[in-house]
Amino acid sequence: MVLIYLCVIIFSCLLQFYTNYKVPIEVRIDYVVDNRIEKTDLEEFLLENGGRQRCGIGRLRAVRSQTEKGKASLFICMTPPCYNGWLLHTVNTSVVNRKTYRGYKEGESFTRQKRKKKESGLGLDLRLLNNSDLVTLTDHIAQD
């Protein structure tokens, strides 16, 4: 009985490391005005509100609408596909320049969640700092 209980605990722990998530391949946003300004505003909004921390936008392409004159559909995906769910949620719940957009998922795939980067005790990602920053950082720590 104890052996079965132990096997269940080990299996559940291993399952956490190999869990796959279903995410959209890319997000489609319809009826965007077909000009560079609105596309750039939407892209900058996504990058400023968490897109840069999630490795940025991988692809953004526009397809002109055949039914609506002057409108286009944007197809956006994040660099790691595990963040496309975040992208879909952000597009559907945010207001950009007094406009709301509706995002739709295009296809689905299974992916693993991206692991978080190791941080120093100060909450800094040491891989983003160059050598001169590390020298001043260690001097600052030594003074404290």
What does this structure look like?
The chain is of the alpha+beta class. The protein has two domains: 94 residues, 2-Layer Sandwich (Alpha-Beta Plaits), CATH 3.30.70; 28 residues, no CATH class. The chain contains four helices and six strands; from the N terminus they run αβαββαβββα. It is elongated and about 70 Å long. 14% of the residues are buried.
Strand fraction:
25-35%
- Secondary structural class: alpha+beta
Distance between the termini: 55 Å
How do the strands of the widest beta sheet line up side by side?
2-3-1-6
- DSSP helix fraction: 25-40%
Q: What is the CATH architecture annotation of the largest domain? A: 2-Layer Sandwich
Mean pLDDT: 75
Brief account:
The protein is α+β, with helices and mostly antiparallel strands.
Defining traits:
single chain, 144 residues, alpha+beta, Alpha-Beta Plaits, four-stranded antiparallel sheet, two-stranded antiparallel sheet, 38% helix, signal
List the helices and strands and how they pair.
Blueprint: H1 2-17, E1 21-33, H2 36-51, E2 57-64, E3 71-78, H3 84-93, E4 95-96, E5 99-100, E6 103-111, H4 131-143
